[in-house]
Amino acid sequence: MLFTLEPLQAADGDCLLLHWGNEASPKLAVIDGGPGRTYEDELLPRLLEIRSNLRKARLDIDLSIVSHIDLDHIVGIKKLFSALKKEIEDSIPPNKRQISVKRLWHNTFNDIVGDKIDGYYKTFTASFQASVGGKPSQDVINNLAEDLVKRNAASPSEATDIAYDIARVLAGHGEGRKLRDDHQFLFMNNETTALNSPFRKDGTSTLITAEMTPTPASVNGLNFTILGPEEAEIKALQTSFDKYIKDNGLTAQAVLAAYADKSVANLSSIICIVQIGGKKILLAGDARGDKIIEGLRNSGQLTGNGPISFDVLKVPHHGSDNNVDLVFFKTIIADTYVFSGDGKNGNPERTTLEWLVQARAKSDKYKIVLTYSISSIDRGRKLDKKKNKKTWSQENDSLSAFFNAAKQDGYQFTVCEGAPEKIELGDEHVGY
Asked: Residue 430: inside a domain, yes or no?
């Protein structure tokens, strides 16, 4: 059995390859595509390398997943689908196309917040939805920060960070619409390749939610249990957005201000357990830790006070300490913890890693997989501290000092730094 998770370097985002099946007939999923140039620099070269090593004329991606529409997750997948669409527009013969995608899971933003909101966006200028090089427009960030301060919705020190989050969601909405449209162009939503297949409701495509998988959904023998988002949360989100617009009027500022709740995108993040042959991976997207635990309880996976064990936990939101706490790591334990992040925005945070280590016994043997080297992550985290006008202490803030101290104190974990680190769970391995 082949079952391998391969995290790629994706700057401050996520980009994961999941291999399963067997060496004679391997299957492949791409889970998120990272921001900026992740597609050009990491994802596409790796896909072409796999195609070459397998000696295939065309590499079939059996499943692509966008966990949610933040730019640090969606941009690479959007670029992949745009490239596939361009091959058709350029009349490239099918036998000359090097990559194909068979299935896309993507909770499109208009489905999350309602078609009315999607209609509102169509009335805005393109600049409100624009991303620049896969990043939110700085002009939009500046305007939003100024508006937040004027409305007393944030202090000046908070406004830029909140505005950045809002602009990411806004630009991600534009990317999400483009991905949805490209998928429709490529597949015309036939039953076998319909968006979010095999999740169907009344014979049509539907949102992927926890309620859709009372029993695991299967894709070529790989089983998925969806833990989130929950339909009740999506409906509440739709209601609150509609009320906000009704109360404040249809203006760009009113709709943008609705994003001051920074949980909008993360509440819609797809959380799932991926399982085959008794091995389990928990993919948490950017969801909040309490929502992940709630999903585990609601699905019957977690009973009592826990803990629950996984072979691999993809730690949510790049190890941000806003998403998890000590209870999270005491409740969910794993043989391998994956942290995607290059230090930007402080992620992975030292506090998060401290909670993880505190939650485990000194004698526990487990792996911490970082997609970048400890030194490069610390450089990024140090710059983040400087940007926020905070003093950096090598001893108290750096990951290197923390890991060194923990090892000297007798902790038995292993740190694997710098992608690609293939996490092999089956008795067959990815040699390509």
From this structure: no
